[in-house]
Design brief:
The chain is mostly beta strands. The longest helix is centred in the N-terminal third of the chain and has 15 residues. It has 3 helices and 17 strands. Strands 2, 3, 5, 6, 7, 11 and 16 form a 7-stranded antiparallel sheet that branches. It has one domain.
Length: 235
């Protein structure tokens, strides 16, 4: 019974630590009804496993929609034991440096609304939430397409805001990452990524003070701006 319980917990943790990304056996083709994104991340700073909130918006009005997805750097190269340790300590066993997000999204227009990060030593815990309202990544996800969003440096020292800075693209490396998924037949293509601002009225904590998120009905993307993105900035 004890062995079964341990296995069940491990299975749950491995699933929870997948970061919202597709699995190694994931199948995708040009006739698929959803879209696939590939995003390179060079993870820096003190937080163990940052999480990016992707949110859909109306391209006509800029209004944020209900559809959203949290995505984190990949844990695919970790063993089950490393993932288990990472889950319970809040730290990441994955080496710092370049990794990829490969994830399925509903078709539509998307933006990255915020970045969360946690770190725990077992005695002291740190948490950071950065709202990227002053300028963030926006893109269009089309059904049956595998969209390359480019390469980004994700930084954040303990106690400070996160930064998401666009760096030189590496299309060949992104293709090599996609080639690891043998059941994906659609070809990688460059997506049009635009840097845009959005309005944010913070939620409220139960006992007063600002919450960590924006009120969705008050989040509006500035759809009039049209600048190729270089940096996502917290506001």
């Amino acid at each position: 019974m004890k062995k079964i319980l341990v296995c069940a917990v491990l299975a749950f943790v491995v699933s929870a630590c997948s970061g919202g990304q597709v699995g190694n056996d994931f199948a995708f083709q040009p006739t698929s009804e959803k879209a696939l994104i590939v995003m390179g991340l060079d993870v820096r700073g003190g937080y163990g496993k940052p999480s990016l909130l992707f949110r859909m918006y109306d391209p006509e009005t800029g209004q944020a929609l209900k559809e959203q997805k949290f995505l984190s750097p990949s844990d695919r190269e970790l063993s089950s034991g490393q993932i288990l340790t990472s889950y319970f300590t809040g730290q990441s066993s994955r080496p710092r440096g370049k990794t990829y997000i490969v994830a399925e999204l509903e078709p539509g227009n998307w933006f990255i609304g915020r970045i969360n990060g946690n770190y725990s030593t077992g005695y002291i815990s740190y948490k950071s939430v950065s709202i990227l309202s002053r300028g963030t990544v926006t893109f269009d996800a089309e059904p049956g397409h595998v969209i390359y969003l480019g390469e980004y440096r994700l930084g954040g020292a303990l106690g400070s805001s996160f930064s998401l800075i666009k760096v030189n693209e590496d299309f060949d490396a992104a293709e090599a990452e996609l080639d690891k998924f043998t059941n994906i037949s659609a070809k990688l293509e460059r997506g049009e990524v635009v840097r845009r601002k959005f309005t944010c009225e913070h939620t409220e904590k139960l006992f007063g003070g600002e919450g960590d998120d924006c009120k969705r009905d008050k989040m509006v993307i500035d759809v009039e701006s049209d600048t190729v993105t270089s940096e996502a900035t917290s506001g």
